[in-house]
Amino acid sequence: MERGLTAWLLRISGLRKLRGQTLLKIGVVLVLSFIAMAIICGPRGLEQYGRFPGIPPYNPAKSYAELPRLSPPTAKNWMGTDHLQRDVFSRVLAGGWAPLAVAFASIALAMSVGSLVGWISGYIGGWPDRAFSLTMDAIYSFPSMILAIALVAVMGSGLIPMIASIAFVYVPTYFRITRAEVLRVREYTFVEAARATGASGWRILIRHIAPNTVNAIMAVSSFNIADAILTEAALAFLGYGLPPPAPDWGFDIQNGQRYLQSGYWWLITFPGLAILFLSLGFGLIGEGISDLLNPKRRRKHLL
Question: In whole angstroms, what is the distance from residue 186 CA to residue 121 CA?
């Protein structure tokens, strides 16, 4: 009975915390909308787009002779058509799965590697800590976009090279955050008590230190996913993304920019807005998570 009452009270208190999180709610709605769009319209092969009839209305990888070339938005084609007589709306709907897949996979990989190395480095200390820190600082000193472009240029175009290059860029970020948290947490009283009871170093690290660093790691992940989406779009813009005619927002912007001076604004506007709103959604989630983890920060916003 007491356990059930305690669980109910914790659930209610959690709901009350979420009640005022407008930014978090808006961000979640935006991100879930794009994820649903990617799942529904994502490809199972270039000739098998869409899992529901009429969504997307056209095959985004296919040209249609009945569609006008470079037509502005109309009631039939909501976002117009491109130079290859393809529906821009369909390409925007189906083009979100690549940025989402690359962003989630690359940040998950970077988080796993960076956090693991940060835990070990911060807890062990000594010359391994110094070696890891100098290596990560050297990587971190490079401009992230230039480094990602250089890596993907060496590995080649495609999803896997983009995931690997973006993950490599963000490993130092998670290393620095995790290491700083380990250096702080390892001085706490409960860690000293665990040492006094004879617990091994690995047990102390896994059971007592690592769990207390998760909040800081997760707080920054949403911002990094938003940045990774922009990085993926830039790589696709430069031609290192999916091979044509697969839809990709960055690649579509690259194709449309050559027609911008001729007045065909819709070719880059709608893919650009999709990138903007998806990145904004993850940014709002990051702000909401930061407010939840730090109530004092939230009160400052209200003031």
Answer: 12
Cα 87–chain centre separation: 27
One-letter amino acid at 274 equals: A
Exposed, middle or buried by CB within 10 Å (0-12, 13-18, 19+), for 62?
middle
d(C-alpha 267, C-alpha 253), whole Å = 7
Q: Which residues contact 160 (CB under 8 A, 6 or more apart)?
A: none
Q: Could you tell me which residue, 294 or 195, shows the higher pLDDT? A: 195
Read off φ and ψ for residue 217, nearest 5 degrees: -65, -45
**Over the stretch 100-153, which tens digit does the pLDDT of each residue have?**
999 999 999 999 999 999 999 988 888 888 999 999 998 888 888 899 999 999
Domain boundaries, given as residue ranges, for the chain: 23-43+58-95+249-303, 98-233
Q: Mean pLDDT for the chain?
A: 83
Give the three-class secondary structure for 52.
strand
Full-model pTM: 0.84
Q: Does domain 98-233 have CATH number 1.10.3720.10?
A: yes
- Which DSSP string do the residues of 103-153 spell out, in sequence order? HHHHHHHHHHHHHHHHHHHHHH-HHHHHHHHHHHHHHHHS-HHHHHHHHHH
Per-residue CA distances from 77 to 47, 84, 86, 221, 280 (Å): 20, 14, 10, 37, 26
